[in-house]
Amino acid sequence: MLSPQLLELLREWWKQCRSPGWLFPGRDPLLPITVRQLNRACHMAADAAGLGSSPIYPAIAGGAPIRMTGSFMPGFFYYFYARPNIADWPQLEGKRVGGGAPGALLHELARLVVEAKGLDFEKIQYVNVGGSPDVYRAVTADKIDAGVSGIEFSREAEQTGEAKALGDLNELLPNYLRYCEAASERTLKDKADAYTAFFYGQMQGHRHALTNKQDTLALATKITQRDSSELGWAIDYYVNKKTANPNGDVSSAKIDYMVDLNVRLGNMKEKIPASRVLDDTIQQKVLAMLGRV
């Protein structure tokens, strides 16, 4: 069932498109939008909106009754790509670095990477080119010199030589917390059993995905409609880089880093302790049930 807000948006969309065929047509108007197209659109929207763990810190600092409860996906699935002629980081000074709109996730990440390598972001020509796929295409088309984009383009970059991965964000920004689990304080108090069951399922699901590659590959192939030969290496990447965390832990170092970042970027007026952000009671309870791996 659609929420009232989504239903209203759907009505507005119908008034605008008045499609004689599919409500959401694909590139071929005789066919519906594909899962792959929808997946790409969702990723672009998430990049543009800056979805991730960042919004939770200023929300809690502002008095929102929510708490972080753990993280099964703390790491990145991004590389910092550059034109073939960029051999090292100092060469980026004065060059065009692209990403999303100022303040969006890809803009934030580009800035952090550049600064982590000792460069002044003010001396970079920042260009708003859109979401992750747009950044990679802009690099290969020589519209920008570098930018943050998904790991899924790394093989193409190696094969064509039109771009190269200058760095892995998991190594460049090791304390950045990408995604987290969160719940309202009321839920944690009044619906602890239900949330425990949810967290238990999440932990079991992530563990199964990380240790049963063929099952994960079959599901990924079904969702993305891509050949399994294109996806197996990505699963290996998630495992080897520890992008996913089967125990759902969140370190205080990562929370402190994210809080400091939000203060520096002007999203928060002052720092708050990690203990005010994280309530890992249920994560620890589930971990006691399943054991640490």
Write the layout of secondary structure elements.
Blueprint: H1 4-17, H2 35-49, H3 56-61, E1 66-70, E2 78-82, E3 96-99, H4 105-116, E4 125-128, H5 132-140, E5 146-150, H6 154-160, E6 164-168, H7 169-172, E7 181-184, H8 185-190, H9 192-211, H10 213-224, H11 232-240, H12 252-264, H13 274-277, H14 281-290
Parallel strand pairs: 3-4, 3-5
Antiparallel strand pairs: 1-7, 2-5, 2-6
Helix pairs in contact: 9-14
Labels describing this entry:
D-Maltodextrin-Binding Protein, domain 2, five-stranded mixed sheet, 14 helices
Give your account of this protein's structure.
With 293 residues, the protein is α/β, with parallel strands linked by helices. The chain has 2 domains: 78-172, D-Maltodextrin-Binding Protein, domain 2; 177-290, no CATH class. It has helices spanning 4-17, 35-49, 56-61, 105-116, 132-140, 154-160, 169-172, 185-190, 192-211, 213-224, 232-240, 252-264, 274-277, 281-290, and strands at 66-70, 78-82, 96-99, 125-128, 146-150, 164-168, 181-184. A 5-stranded mixed β-sheet has the order 4-3-5-2-6, sandwiched between helices. The chain has a two-stranded antiparallel sheet with strand order 1-7. The two termini are 38 Å apart.
Summarize the model shown.
This protein is 48% helix and 11% strand. It has helices spanning 4-17, 35-49, 56-61, 105-116, 132-140, 154-160, 169-172, 185-190, 192-211, 213-224, 232-240, 252-264, 274-277, 281-290, and strands spanning 66-70, 78-82, 96-99, 125-128, 146-150, 164-168, 181-184.
What is the chains' assembly state? Answer: single chain
What proportion strand?
Answer: 5-15%
Instruction: Provide the helix percentage.
Output: 40-55%
Structural class: alpha/beta
Mean pLDDT: 88
Describe the global form: globular
**Which parts are unreliable, with pLDDT below 50 for 5 consecutive residues or more?**
none
